[in-house]
Amino acid sequence: MSFVLNVVIIGTGGAVRLTGSGLGCPNWPLCAPGSLIPTEELTYHSLIEFGNRTLSGPLLVFALLVFLLSLRIREQRRDLFTISAVVLGLVLLQAVIGGVVVWMHLNANLVSVHYAISLAIVCITAAYLARMYEVAAPRELVVPKSFMILTHVTTVAMAITVIFGVITTGSGPHSGDATIQRDGVDATLMSHIHAWPGYAALALTLVLLVLAAKDKLRPLRWIIALLAVLILQIVLGVYQARNGLPALVVGAHMILATLTTAAMTLVVLRLKRPVAQ
Q1: Where do transmembrane segments lie in this chain (predicted)?
Q2: pLDDT category of residue 274 using cuts at 50, 70 and 90
């Protein structure tokens, strides 16, 4: 549930930005002066922004529950306890950064950091789910070393793609509020720079698929999932770049980024398995 909520809040956060609702609630932690919820004087932008804020509550509750449950088994599963503690800490950090973003009137750099941390949380919660279904034991490599290296190179290409994607979005027209304009970075140039490592990641994933299928390697199923999401992600990216960045497509592109990075995380984790398994 924590994984799902983190994906959902990225979607609602994207809706806030793409509908120009970033300052729908001009204050934080209150929505408006003297009111925790939107007032009648505010617009529908306030409802969108407040809805995104409201998800922070369940997100924190589930992160805390997972942490407490992991705390009970920390002697047997220190890995799960550590992961849950990191997730809880990042969720709390996100709440603070979200407030600072509002105070700083949607500073592009802070918004980018806010999104990047959300992606990291999705990857970490995906790792928790994967490790949860494995026994607690030392792990051993179950793929050729060359395959492992190629997988990590693909991960680097994916990370570079995400980083430049965040910068590209920050330089584009969807600033989160109609009164805020982005400048200083050529959005068209950034879109091309963002695309190049994306194509490299696609090519590398295809190579991984061929090698994994040939030798029936453990990560095969997640490589197939990664390839499917990555192809869809590239198609949407090309479409939005050639059609004036329609908000709905940009939002779908942001959400798919979470699934792409989560799939990449699981591919990496499948390179090893518990010795006892």
Answers
A1: 55-73, 80-106, 112-130, 142-167, 193-213, 220-239, 245-269
A2: confident
Read off the pLDDT of residues 127-172 as tens digits, 9 standing for 90 and up.
999 988 888 778 889 999 999 999 999 999 999 998 888 777 766 6
Mean pLDDT of the chain: 83
In the structure encoding, which two tokens stand for residue 140, read together?
């051993």
Torsion on CA atoms 252, 258, 264, 266, rounded to nearest 10: -130
Neighbours of 160 (CB within 10 A): 17
Q: Which residue has the higher pLDDT, 254 or 121?
A: 121
Q: What are 86-94's contacts with CB under 8 Å, separation 24+?
A: 86/124, 87/2, 87/63, 87/121, 87/124, 87/125, 87/128, 88/63, 88/64, 90/117, 90/120, 90/121, 90/124, 91/59, 91/60, 91/63, 91/121, 92/60, 93/117, 94/56, 94/118, 94/121
